[in-house]
Amino acid sequence: MKYQSIETLLKNNQAWVVEQLALDPHYFEELARGQTPPFLYIGCSDSRLPLTRYTKSQPGELFVHRNIGNQVSLTDINFLSVLEYAIAHLQVQHIIVCGHYDCGGIKAALEGKTTGLVDNWVNPIRELYLESREEIDLLPTREAKLNRLAEINVIAQVKNLYQTSIIREVMRQETAPQIHGWVLEIKTGLIKNLNIATEEWQFYPSCQLSNSGLLELSTN
Question: Is 207 a catalytic residue?
Answer without folding.
Answer: no
